[in-house]
Specification:
The complex is a heterodimer of chains A (111) and B (113).
Chain A lengths: L3 E3 L4 E4 L4 E7 L7 E6 L6 E6 L3 E5 L2 E6 L4 E6 L8 E8 L6 E3 L3 E6 L1
Chain B lengths: L4 E3 L2 E4 L5 E6 L6 E7 L6 E7 L2 E5 L6 E5 L5 E5 L8 E8 L8 E2 L3 E5 L1
Parallel strand pairs in B: 2-11
Antiparallel strand pairs in B: 1-3, 3-8, 4-5, 4-9, 5-6, 7-8, 9-10, 9-11
The chains are: A mainly beta (111), B mainly beta (113).
Chain lengths: 111, 113
């Protein structure tokens, strides 16, 4: 079992809709969670960072963390075609000094 | 704002050659991570450094070595290159700690022919 799991998708949503991306993690020692957006052949770009239970909002993006369920999600409101990319969920390695990535979810926003 | 700088951006090497990739972290960041990403795959953790000491090791082949220097830049040395080493290599940097953001450089695309 991978330490950070995501549905690989593709997740297809129409322009203007809400895209919901989900992630689960197995290490209860992980404290910080990250959502990165990655366009093909480009480097991961940090879009959200959360470490407290609950919601964190930044513009059109909302990250949700539920430590009891070991679940992290990312909501993208008013999805745009430019949001089409792979979204990587990552967790810190608990006692280790590394980030552990999920396999990523490919999001396709249809115009 | 200054970002993580990696060099070179592209590198072509032949089998059995060596390669050195460089990473310059964001100023004041003391932690550096190296990742390898093959086509269609998620980034795989190779190794990390904190304050010039190796802090964690992942799936880094014995043919690879890395270090962090006094100015906090890091170098990944790859020897006896194989075709399977062709990938994107990313460096990320952060401040040490569990509640700090990690930012990635633009990556080095290594092609082994």
């Amino acid at each position: 079992q991978k330490e950070v799991e995501q549905n690989s998708g593709p997740l297809s949503v129409p322009e203007g809709a809400i895209a919901s991306l989900n992630c689960t993690y197995s290490d209860r020692g992980s404290q910080s969670f990250f959502w990165y957006r990655q366009y093909s052949g480009k480097s991961p770009e940090l879009i959200m960072f959360i470490y407290s239970n609950g919601d964190k909002e930044d513009g059109r993006f909302t990250a949700q963390l539920n430590k009891a369920s070991q679940y992290v999600s990312l909501l993208i409101r008013d999805s745009q075609p430019s949001d089409s990319a792979t979204y990587l969920c990552a967790a810190d390695g608990g006692a280790t000094n590394k980030l552990i990535f999920g396999t990523g979810t490919l999001l396709a926003v249809q115009p | 704002a200054a970002g993580v700088i990696q060099s070179p951006r592209h590198l072509i090497k032949e089998k059995r050659e060596t390669a050195t990739l460089k990473c310059y972290p964001i100023p004041r960041h003391d932690t550096v991570y190296w990742y390898q990403q093959g086509p269609g795959q998620d980034p795989q953790f190779l190794i990390s450094f904190y304050e010039k000491m190796q802090s964690d090791k992942g799936s880094i082949p014995d043919r690879f070595s890395a270090q962090q220097f006094s100015d906090y830049h890091s170098e990944l040395n790859m020897s006896s290159l194989e075709l399977g080493d062709s990938a994107l290599y990313f460096c990320a940097s952060s401040l040490h700690g569990t509640r700090t953001e990690a930012f990635f450089g633009q990556g080095t695309r290594l092609t082994v022919v």
